[in-house]
Amino acid sequence: LFTYLTVMEHLIFFGVVKGMSFHKARQEGQNMLQLMHLMDVQHSYIDTLSGGTLRKVSLSIALIGNPKVLLLDEPTLGMDPETRRDVWDLILRKRGNHTIIITTQL
């Protein structure tokens, strides 16, 4: 992640890198911010965020553009229990439309 970009700028940047138009990337970025409960940090720079929030940003980046395959390395590491449950619920909802490979410790 880039320290000189905000959360929203990251979502737009990676959306465009994945082939989306700027407008579509911004629109999907807004959806991701709401879905991941990141609206309050959308204008924050990456180096000011907690580890759990950084995980949510990384997961949002992975999900933007609706990829067919998701590779997630310990996606809930450092998250509080409520956020962890929300993220696992999101991953479970996505499993029907995506191939998801997850590494995690049990």
Automatic annotation (TrEMBL):
It comes from Homalodisca liturata. Residues 5-76 form the ABC transporter domain. The lineage of its organism: Eukaryota, Metazoa, Ecdysozoa, Arthropoda, Hexapoda. Keywords: Repeat, Transport. GO terms for molecular function: ABC-type transporter activity; ATP binding; ATP hydrolysis activity; lipid transporter activity. The keyword Transport applies. It comes from the Eukaryota. This is ABC transporter domain-containing protein. GO terms for cellular component: membrane.
